[in-house]
């Protein structure tokens, strides 16, 4: 394309995201008929938006117009394409060596918060959910990729206000440079334009580039701020009840009995835990959501469920319930009686999620009304205090071709999935204002378009301790520095399995996370440990403190996190071993103040330091939790 630099236009603009400067560029690409190439002429107009309140990012979109004599096929539309070379900042490093965040939901247990690029990196980062392409991943996620070095970082993202059927590819080329972009591949089955007739135009989605320092934190924060200004109302904090620690029954598995739960109540209450959550295994079929009459559970059906909730409350505990509102078992009454509520493939078959369940269509009013009625039953009739919404199927739903739903496009179900969770959240808050509603996407990156509709985030089933801490930082960036983010459970080491992480209260409290737990039985020494750490959690209240982005989780050693609460700074350092001869830098202290430094988990005092020389020397293994309290 050749840019017409004489027709560059700059003007003031104002939209839902605020005001600023709009830059419009016009360009032309042409090719006249030769022996092997047809004639073509394409005009491109690029609009770039520079927001006054979001100086770290530039949003943009492009319009392509066919000015030639023949129709053109549209294979893909590419925006915000960049080729990165780390050597420009670090001459001694390989061109392709970047730390990265990639928000596409691919596979259970994969890292998304810290991925190192290399000479062979080639990731499609597909953001849709296509049953015909299971190898492309679970679908959905956070439509942003970020690459950074110790000096700076660059992220590209969709700037639209709902999920888009796009790719965010990251590839290392033959020349060693890493290319990132936002890519659309239109499809006729969705009613999208795949051929551009003479005189016709097509547009890219609006996307954005974000520049930042340190790790992914500020890129995600800037992206969330952009979405907020465009109408995706992601809350910045959580109601007080959300921060209360809880225990859930998953330690007993699907085959729990009520007597097992009743037998645990006094113990968990003695730890300072305020809520007991009933996990998976309580119901007959997905979609029907009737209490199971299985032995040891709810033989009397709903009356027994009400008795269960009353007994927990009589013991002084609140309670919440596990639920996957979109899933429908093929054996359920709902699937038999209302197949017209379900998402349908183009060939008339019914797509299934990872649990082999059908999907309720979020654009089917009757299906939404059914789900809202279940909220009323759970929180109203049964009197639960909150909801725990779970499974990988939450991440996205496939396109819906069900003619009964009269969709404008099959993508309506995919793009408007958040509407179902909006209905759930609004009814829940109307019934019990401030009640906790948590969503776990089962090891996948959270979807920002659903974030307005749950007030407890979590680390999304991490499979190792560094992943726990990184994902907590991800959610604090997206949701707000004081938002409630769960640690995804303290599990005693003898009950640990590979789908979870072993006990590490330090990783939870040291990052400002909500402390939660599941287990079937503890030893006496473990009881003392649980009692001690939940006591620290309740006393300090760091989960509602302000998370500060002062360290790079990829390049700073040791790994470090900081939470500010009541004027003091709380540091969590994590490394296999750290020697005393290497100083630890306590970032964020005010130069003119002096601070008393305490190892707050043990109460050991480490002395006084000046904000102008914010270093201490302390050997440790695993973790070190410090409090820096300003001296008056």
From TrEMBL:
It comes from the Bacteria. Keywords: Glycosidase, Hydrolase. PROSITE patterns: RHODANESE_3 (PS50206). This is Rhodanese domain-containing protein. Residues 264-294 form the Rhodanese domain. CDD domains: GH36. InterPro entries: Aldolase_TIM (IPR013785), Alpha-glycosidase_related (IPR050985), GH (IPR017853), Glyco_hydro_36 (IPR002252), Rhodanese-like_dom (IPR001763). It comes from Candidatus Glassbacteria bacterium RIFCSPLOWO2_12_FULL_58_11. The keyword Hydrolase applies. GO terms for biological process: carbohydrate catabolic process. GO terms for molecular function: alpha-galactosidase activity.
